[in-house]
TrEMBL record:
Record organism: Pirellula staleyi (strain ATCC 27377 / DSM 6068 / ICPB 4128)
Localization of this protein: Cell inner membrane; Membrane
Protein name stated in the entry: NADH-quinone oxidoreductase subunit K
Reaction(s) catalysed (UniProt annotation): a quinone + NADH + 5 H(+)(in) = a quinol + NAD(+) + 4 H(+)(out)
Keywords, comma-separated and alphabetical: Cell inner membrane, Cell membrane, Membrane, NAD, Quinone, Translocase, Transmembrane, Transmembrane helix, Transport, Ubiquinone
Top-level EC class as recorded in UniProt: translocase
Length: 111
């Protein structure tokens, strides 16, 4: 039997979500630029969204309403948009004061 003709299951979506999540964590850990760290956070949130949709799908639970995962993903998307707006405002303010957005230069912000 050809493996490319098999239907998609919940485990396929969970695998894609896990790959996005791990890629985002690696991006957050290795990037020194604040914008790179923000991109890693967005990858982590998108991986979580895919997992929410997979767990809320009718293939995983047949007795659900069918919108559980999508509503949680919509909430995470709204949260990510607010986080990105606040983080970009902080990055722009930091750049105006220090002429760099290198995360290591932010040590003088300690109280």
């Amino acid at each position: 039997m050809n493996p490319f003709t098999q239907p998609l299951t919940v485990s396929h979506y969970l695998l894609v979500g896990a790959v996005l999540f791990v890629t985002g964590v690696i991006c957050m850990a290795t990037k020194r630029n604040a914008l790179g760290v923000l991109m890693g956070i967005e990858l982590v949130l998108n991986g979580a969204n895919i997992n929410f949709v997979a767990f809320g799908s009718r293939f995983f639970r047949s007795e659900s309403l069918g919108l559980d995962g999508e509503l949680m993903a919509l909430f995470v998307i709204v949260l990510a948009a607010a986080e990105a707006a606040v983080a970009l405002a902080i990055a722009l303010n930091f750049y105006n004061n220090h002429s760099t957005i290198d995360v290591d230069q932010a040590d003088e912000l300690k109280g």
